[in-house]
Amino acid sequence: MRCTWSGVLPAAITHFKEDQTLDLPATLQHLDAMIEAGVHGLIMLGTVGENCSLEFGEKLDVLRATVEHVHRRVPVLTGVAECSTRLACRFAEEAARIGVDGLMVLPAMVYKADRREAMAHFRAVAGASDLPIMIYNNPVSYGVDLTPEMFADLADEPKFTCIKESSENVRRITDLKILCRDRYALFCGVDDLVFESVALGATGWVSGLVNAFPAENRLLWDLLMEKKYAEALEVYRWYTPLLHLDTHVKLVQYIKLAVHACGYGSELVRMPRLPLTGSERERILGIIQKGIATRPKLDR
């Protein structure tokens, strides 16, 4: 299925059972809820999907189940986050065989690559399959910064189609537009910068909080696309305390707690992450419950 490289793509969570094994039925049921709310595609096994906490075979199990269940209703992408380039290439090959529609490729995990090494990694993964690629730039979390100048150098590889910009520096959207023009589709990768990113030229949003608030997320996106900025700003200001949960080291626990509070599944995470407890859980749950109690009306 062809990726359109626009719209809202959830960084979908992976659901677990009490014993920390995969809960594929719960994962697929949750995907259905987001598809019904109008998301434009799915990204499995991203940061929020706990990619690095899953074994290689488990990742493939998630992809097989998702591709079969979604049945081409929307495009399905997968994160590629491995510790070595060789393993990343192998995973890209396996994902292509399973039938995903595109890749969201991260730098090699753990090792902090320099400019030359980082670009060599992405070029190698591009050569491992025929799938189009979203390059995920998140120096805050992964310690490797892909600058606009590096993206200009990578522009000769046609499989590099899209950039998920998560540097938390919204100036990057403008810098990329100036240097690379319309060579890449630009996606906001930080939930609480989506209004600013769209205003500067982003045409897509990889969202985490959409897992918990799919209908409200779609409302905000539609208002932004319709350039109804006054209405969009009102929704954005309601949503922002929740969107801030996407920018913390415990974003997975925070988002899963929101998913649980909104009735879309459990808050279970896989170790080394642990569920929230005590005053931290009460504080985050308070933010979520206030958002639920004051959520905007959807009768548009």
Structure overview:
The protein is an alpha/beta fold and 300 residues long. The chain has a single domain (7-228), classed as Aldolase class I (TIM Barrel, Alpha-Beta Barrel). The chain contains 12 helices and 8 strands. It has an 8-stranded parallel β-sheet with strand order 1-8-7-6-5-4-3-2, covered by helices on one side. The radius of gyration is 18 Å and the shape is globular. The two termini are 30 Å apart. The model has no long low-confidence stretch (mean pLDDT 97).
What is the structure about, briefly put?
With 300 residues, the protein is α/β, with parallel strands linked by helices. It has helices at 24-37, 56-70, 85-98, 115-126, 139-142, 148-154, 171-180, 194-200, 214-225, 229-243, 251-261, 278-293, and strands at 7-10, 42-44, 76-80, 102-105, 133-137, 160-165, 185-188, 204-207.
Helices and strands in order, then pairings?
Layout: E1 7-10, H1 24-37, E2 42-44, H2 56-70, E3 76-80, H3 85-98, E4 102-105, H4 115-126, E5 133-137, H5 139-142, H6 148-154, E6 160-165, H7 171-180, E7 185-188, H8 194-200, E8 204-207, H9 214-225, H10 229-243, H11 251-261, H12 278-293
